Amino acid sequence: MTMPVRLGVNIDHVATLRNARGGGHPDPLTVAQACVGAGADGITIHLREDRRHIRDADAEAICAWAARPVNFEMAATDEMAAIACRLKPRAVCVVPERRAEITTEGGLDVVKHRTTLRPVIARLKDAGIVVSLFIDPVAAQVEAAAEIGAAVVELHTGAYANDKPGELARLQAAAALTTQVGLECHAGHGLTFANVQAIAALPEIRELNIGHFLMGEALLIGLPAAIAEMKRLMNAARGL
Ligand code: PXP
Asked: How many domains does the chain have?
C-alpha cells in the first residue's frame, strides 16, 4: 500500500516576524496549532545558538503542547542536547550551524564528525528521542549516519531547489540507499509547490519539512490553504 508522506511545517519564520517588533505577535505556538488544524502532520522548530528566531520559551511551549510530533532541529552541542533531553520532542534533527549563514546551507559532515556525533546521538536516544541527521545526498554520509546510530536521515534538497543539474538523481540514489542501511528517509529545504512533487514521489521518503515557502505563500493565499495545497501535491505525487 502506498503510504502518504508526512508534512512537517517549519515555523521558525513566524518567530522571525514576531522578533522584528519585539512583541508577542505572531505567536509561534498559536501558528503551530493553526498548522495542525490545517493538516500539518508535525511541527519543526530550530533553536539556534544565537536564538535569532525560535527562543527557549517558544520551544518549551511547543514541546509541552505537542498535539503533533515536534521535530527539534539543533546543532550537536552539549547545551542543545541538554535542552532536547529536558523538552523531549518526538524527534531531533541534528543540523550544522554556522553563525553567519542565513539558513542551513549544507548538510552535516557525518563522515568527518562521526566521533563527536556518536555520543550526542546516544544521549538523545537514551532520552527516548528519534534522532535524524540532516545530510547532503551522498552515499558515504548515509552510510556513516547508519553506522553511528541515527534512525533517520533528512536529505538536504537545497541544491535541487536551486536547479543544480543531476541533483534529483543524487537524491534518488541516496534515498534508495537509506532503506538498504535501515534508515528512515526525510527531506527538506527550499521546497515549493513547483518542485515538491519529484521529491514526494521518491518511494523511500516518509516526511518532508517545509518552512519558508509555506510562510511566504501564507501571505498570499492564507496558511490553511498553503498547507492544504502542499499536502494535496504531496499526495498526488504518490497517486493518493
Ligand atoms: N529541514 C531542515 C533541516 C532545515 O534546516 C530547514 C530550514 O530551516 C528546512 C528543512 C526547511 O527549509 P525551508 O524553510 O527552505 O522550507
From this structure: 1
C-alpha span between 153 and 79 (Å, rounded): 22
Query: Has 189 been annotated as catalytic?
Result: yes
Structural domain for 50, as ranges: 6-237
Domain of 25, CATH number, reads: 3.20.20.70
Q: Is 20 helix (H, G, I), strand (E, B) or coil?
A: coil
Whether 113 is a known active-site residue: answer no
Cell of 199: 521529491
46 is catalytic: yes
Indicate whether this model's pTM tops 0.85.
Answer: yes
**Inside any domain, residue 1:** no
Residue nearest to atom 6 of ligand 1 (CA): 189
The answer to whether 187 and 157 have CB atoms below 8 angstroms apart is yes
Stretches where the chain sits below pLDDT 70 are 99-100
Ligand 1 centre distance from Cα of residue 210 (Å): 6
Q: Residue 148 domain-assigned?
A: yes
* Ligand 1 residue neighbourhood (C-beta within 6 Å): 10, 12, 46, 73, 93, 95, 103-104, 134, 154, 188-191, 209-213
